[in-house]
Every structure is written in C-alpha cells, then in structure tokens.
Write a structure and sequence with these properties.
4 helices; 2 domains; about 130 residues; mainly alpha; about 90% helix
C-alpha cells in the first residue's frame, strides 16, 4: 500500500509539472499510473471475491445474487473511474453522462433480482 501511495505522490508531482509544459502528456501519465495501480487492485479483488464466495456458501446465499453484486460493483467502480478521468480533463458533461450510464446499467442488472424479491414478498403476503 505504501508503494502505491508513493507512486501516486510522485506521479502527482510529475503531472502538475507536465500540465504546465505539455498537458496531453500529463493525461497519458495519469492514465498509465491508473493502469499500474489497477494491476494490484485486480489481485485484491480476486481474493475478496473468493472470500465472498466462501461466506455466501456458508450463509446459503444464491451464487447468482453474489455474481450480480460483484458485477454491479465492477460497473460502479469502472464508471466512477471513467467519470473522474473525464472530470479531470474538463469534460464535466461527459463525466455526468458516464455516471448516469453506470447507474442505468446497474439498475437494469438489478431488475431481475427486484422481480424475484417482489415475487417472494407477495408469496409471504398471500396476495
């Protein structure tokens, strides 16, 4: 974790300097650092997913629900990262569109789960 913080701090200093000289290089440096940070994050995510699978098996939670949650989290993080990049580039309207698209994708993914929840609750109410 300390290495990642050090990398980000050094990259931030370089990005600040590059913004004044060659702003397009600053963007590409930022993108490269984000990709470098993404590699360890993927490893951590894989470990977290395996632990979630073990916990869901113990709790008796359907694996489809867990898959849905992991996909929604991935969409959320990807959309937020893309929106932040757009915002940093001065494209706030594009950032808002990316965030809206991410929310819409998550909503569409969750509709089958919501339908199951409504169906399940109606059986308990005897309607």
């Amino acid at each position: 974790m300390l290495k990642i913080v050090g990398l980000c701090t050094a990259a931030l200093a370089a990005i600040i300097v590059l913004k004044n000289v060659r702003s397009e290089y600053a963007f590409f440096l930022k993108l490269a650092v984000l990709l470098l940070i993404g590699v360890p994050v993927v490893g951590l995510a894989a470990e977290a997913i395996s632990q979630l699978q073990a916990l869901s098996a113990q709790a008796g939670i359907d694996s489809d629900v867990l898959k849905l949650l992991v996909k929604a989290l991935g969409i959320c993080l990807t959309a937020q990262l893309a929106a932040n990049l757009c915002q940093d580039s001065g494209e706030s309207a594009l950032a808002s569109a990316v965030e809206l698209l991410g929310r819409g994708a998550i909503l569409l993914m969750a509709l089958p789960l919501a339908a199951q929840l409504i169906s399940w609750s109606l059986t308990w109410i005897d309607v």
